[in-house]
Amino acid sequence: MGLRARIIIVVVVASSIINLFLCFYFIAQIRELELKSLRDKINKTTHMMKLVNARPLYNVDKETLKINMETFFDDENMKHISIHEADIDVNIQFARKFDPNAMDIEKSFYISYKGLNLGKMRVVYSTSLIEKKLAKFRSQMLVFTFGVILAMVVILGFVINRLMAPITRLAVAASDIAAGNLERQIPKGGTGEVGILARNFASMQDAVKEKINDLALTNKHLKNQIQQKEMNEKKILHQSRIIFSVNTFFQKSMMAASRQEVAELFIPIALAVIDSRYCFVGEVDKANPERMHILAISRQALADCALTDMEKELRLKGTCITGIRARIIRENIGVIANNPAVHPDIGHMPDAHIPLENFMGIPMRVGSETNGIVAFSGKNEGYDEGDKEAAQILTMALTEALNLKRQEEEKLRLEEMMIQSEKMVSLGSLAAGMAHEINNPLAGILQNTQVIQNRLKNRLPANLAAARELALDLDRMTAYMEKRDIFKMTDAILTAGRRAAAIVSNMLSFSRKSSSGFVHEDLEMLLDQTLELAKSDYNLKKRFDFKKIRIERDYMPGLPKVSCKASEIQQVFFNILSNGAQAMMSDPMNQDPCFFLRLFMQHDMVSVQIQDNGPGMNAAQRKRIFEPFFTTKSVGEGTGLGLAVSYFIITENHKGRIQVASSPGQGSCFTINLPV
Ligand SMILES: Nc1ncnc2c1ncn2[C@@H]1O[C@H](COP(=O)(O)OP(=O)(O)OP(=O)(O)O)[C@@H](O)[C@H]1O
Ligand SMILES: [Mg+2]
Asked: Is any ligand 1 atom within 6 A of the Cβ of residue 503?
């Protein structure tokens, strides 16, 4: 119930009670007065009656008595009047009817005259008229009072309304504010306490607003701090995961046998951290910086591209650095492409490329140069800066591990090379020394065998003269020799001797160092000529058909000419090509024998690479192939001198380098470096 209604009710109830009380109090007072005046009147009237009726009664003047009685009975309050005197037969009485509930005042007295009691009178007055008057007065009073109260209520209502209006407005505003609308304007009007209340309320509202704003700010600040803390915690967790992965990777990479194995170990670890489907590690070809080799690639990527194994191998061995890869490598920046379809650096994809929904590439940096790329693809929700950071850390670890492995391999290679060259020098000088020693007796054997044949077979004048002197029949002797196969034997001595002489000549070349006959030659032309020679060489043709071998050429244009002896370099190429052809043909499972021939510049040397996809060699074989007389071929098929001769031609005669990279099942790759 509102304040207004309550005030009105209180006022109405209070004034009604007071009015009723006053009304009844005054009416009671009036009644008392009325009754008192009635009694006084009765007393006076009875006195009058005693006086007026005494004489007529004494005179038994009934007429006068009656007139007197009627006159007295005119009094409207009188209910009953009677005079009675049995002796004179006077019995006059008048009566009126009144409300039986009203009070009666009765008086009986004797009329006396001259000391005689003449008759008895009885008067009864009723208060009924007084009561009626009072009742009427009461009703009028009540009507008036309640009329006044009603008027008061109306006036009061109006006044209260006027007085309460600012409070009401304040109350509505307060309700709005309480409901949360702090921007609600507080009506500042009103005078007196209401005005003060409104103003205080407005300042209170401002203070509350300020406090709430402060609280909101503090809340926001706290929320930010909590968010920051959560983010930091997540970051720390993520980073510790990365560090753990890097640690695991380093530990595993120590056990890896090659750089390729290091990269292969890296892929699953990186995929677990970055949560991607595909990943590859690509390295810029040192010899040809326009191309990149895929050092390792995730299994899923190989499974999801529809290429034959051979095509996959070709793509992995070397692809041109273009598009987004080029940008990452040339500009040395990590790139995220979550929408490859519209990325400016991602152009046309090669056929059967894996589906590229998103891509992230990180450059592999060694010092100031970028020598490769680690790329990820196929993350469900795309890549973000956090992934990039993680990938950069992982890539750094990979680059470091690859570098360490490279240094390790380089060291091993250098050690191997040193051992190899020392071994070759001592073996070479031993073989050359032996060849020198064998050369003279061998020459003696060959010469003397030829002389024997000349003196036995041919009818030379000196032979004829000696036979004649001894009476020897030359024809019969010749027939004997033929019968006993002596000529065949001397022929065999000559063939074996010539073969030995060829070997000796090869062995002598180990120590032959002459700079004569050096001409500037085009290695591309020499290599192609040797290939043609090998194709048409009868001895080679006998064993295998060179035409079945596919040739892939990759010659860097504009290479400088190299000062060399063409015949010797051709011999080296020939030895390597015939070895490779033999090796590839020895494997009946090899359906697509192929030579990869490459020519490129490496520092100040021209490099020639001859690679085959034959069975390859194990480490023990690989370490010995340049040794003179090392062969895995059956007796008579190979002397084991081909690579030994090649080695000395390159290292001793041309001051170059010859190396081999090979492992079982992976083919062999010979690299010859010749100074320009
Ligand atoms: N491309 C190759 N693939 C596999 N093994 C090879 C390859 N080239 C050389 N070899 C191995 O190296 C050995 C030595 O080769 P080298 O040319 O010195 O002698 P050879 O070929 O056995 O005999 P020759 O060349 O005198 O006929 C070979 O017997 C073979 O085992
Ligand atoms: Mg050979």
From this structure: no
